[in-house]
Amino acid sequence: MLVAFLTRGRLGGKLCFDGQQVYLEDADEDIADAVKPYLDRELEYKASEWVDGVRVRQVHAARPGTIEHFSALVWHYLPHRAKVQVSCVSPDGTPPSCPGAGLIELEGR
Length: 109
Fold this sequence. Notes:
By secondary structure, this protein is α+β, with helices and mostly antiparallel strands. The protein is 28% helix and 39% strand. Strands 3-2-1-6 form a four-stranded antiparallel sheet, covered by helices on one side. Strands 4-5 form a two-stranded antiparallel ribbon. Strand 4 and strand 5 (54-62) form a beta hairpin. Helix 1 (29-39) crosses helix 2 (67-82). The radius of gyration is 15 Å and the shape is elongated.
């Protein structure tokens, strides 16, 4: 399982990937409203690859429920389009030093 800790101001939440689906957990309404439009749709992202010694920029599509979809959300869509900060990503949901992860506990969640 992968867990991305999300923040927006003093609000917090988690974006989780369990190997089959990407979903929100313990997310404040403001964060949920910003993230939900991207959860169930195919996402496009650009990546550079080396082909025969030449750097080529390609467009890829990430289907919902895949690790590629989770990565596209964490690295591009959430911070740049949804304006939600990703503090860190943890494989088990208990990061030892994740800035902002404690906001969830501070807010009484």
